[in-house]
Task: inverse folding
């Protein structure tokens, strides 16, 4: 009988382990480590993400039940305390570096086929509580972290992420983000900063955002409106030349203002491109509800950074798996299939075959139960 790997085993084959080992050596992640290596830590965290585990204790218990099969993939069942120590002390740069490398591998060929790049910028908050979360204190009683993301709207995946305390403003984090020259950037009012806009404009980027309600448009020139488009106004003009009375506004280029009427009758200064921001909101919901990043398995800054990086790697792997197997179902259905078959010996191609169980005859079930 032909040997068949488990689904998890085949997924691990998609990891560029040579680069992983190089990152481990570069950051000294395995120095003075005898047993529970960084590779064991990564396999355990990735297993937890794909299995839907919400705590280190759950990862430990479920991995222990599959110990024989995990041994063949290089996995190791560690005590919860050992796992927690590794998450708290090891460099998250190993995991974030692996994510960036895998992202480059996944997007290189697609980028050659695309002329324009549309990038969405936003952040999402995560609640923290308990010992070790003081690094992200928001107020006297509340701790929280923020995940700042640049999301490629056409590729359908994040291309950059950063972690900060929840009290860090979105625009502060955005100023440290890399800029892709010539890209289209879409973001909300949390990134309202003329100096940063000017920096994007200097790099040849197109900016798609909303104006504040009290933002005037000087020397405005009306553009012709297309009949039946639903656009109320289309103007080109200039932002205020001065900020705070004496400071010169660095954003000196002309801007375009488009006003539309929503289905609820609300007037918005927003074009159709801005509506694509909804994609990043769906991504955040998927990460929180499907990959369960709201259930943080550690509260230290290191542990949070590592978990977010591994969750993003899991997201890339699932997208790659969906492309390889050509599953005709939604991403959520694929996650459920992987979760249900993770440690089963099954060909990845067979994940396409979703077998719907026959309807249950409740009367027959009761009769059978009564005869036992």
Result:
């Amino acid at each position: 009988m032909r040997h068949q790997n488990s689904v998890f085993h085949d997924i691990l084959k998609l990891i560029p382990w040579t680069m992983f080992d190089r990152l481990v050596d570069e950051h000294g992640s395995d120095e003075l480590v005898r047993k529970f290596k960084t590779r064991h830590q990564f396999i355990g965290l990735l297993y937890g993400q794909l299995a839907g585990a919400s705590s280190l204790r759950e990862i430990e218990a479920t991995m222990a039940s599959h110990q024989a099969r995990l041994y063949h993939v290089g996995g190791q069942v560690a005590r919860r305390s050992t796992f927690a120590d590794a998450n708290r002390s090891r460099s998250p740069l190993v995991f974030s570096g692996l994510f960036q490398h895998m992202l480059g591998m996944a997007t290189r060929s697609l980028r050659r086929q695309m002329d324009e790049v549309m990038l969405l910028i936003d952040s999402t908050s995560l609640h923290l509580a308990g010992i070790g979360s003081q690094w992200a204190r928001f107020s006297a009683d509340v701790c929280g972290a923020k995940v700042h993301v640049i999301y490629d709207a056409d590729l359908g995946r994040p291309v950059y992420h950063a972690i900060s305390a929840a009290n860090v403003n979105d625009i502060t984090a955005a100023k440290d983000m890399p800029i892709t020259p010539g890209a289209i950037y879409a973001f909300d009012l949390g990134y309202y900063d003329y100096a940063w806009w000017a920096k994007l404009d200097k790099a040849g980027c197109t900016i798609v955002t909303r104006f504040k309600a009290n933002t005037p448009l000087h020397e405005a020139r009306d553009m012709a409106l297309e009949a039946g488009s639903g656009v109320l106004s289309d103007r080109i003009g200039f932002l205020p030349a001065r900020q705070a009375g004496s400071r010169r506004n660095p954003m000196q280029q002309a801007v375009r203002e488009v006003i539309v009427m929503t289905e609820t009758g609300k007037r918005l200064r927003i074009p159709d491109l801005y509506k694509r921001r909804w994609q990043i909101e769906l991504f955040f919901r998927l990460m929180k509800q499907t990959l369960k990043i709201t259930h943080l398995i550690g509260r230290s800054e290191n542990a949070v950074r590592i978990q977010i990086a591994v969750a993003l790697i899991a997201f890339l792997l699932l997208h790659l798996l969906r492309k390889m197997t050509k599953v005709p179902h939604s991403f959520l259905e694929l996650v459920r299939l992987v979760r249900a078959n993770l440690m089963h010996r099954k060909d990845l191609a067979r994940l396409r075959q979703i077998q719907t169980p026959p309807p249950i005859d409740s009367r027959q079930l009761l009769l059978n139960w009564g005869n036992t």
Observations:
- The chain is about 40% helix and 15% strand.
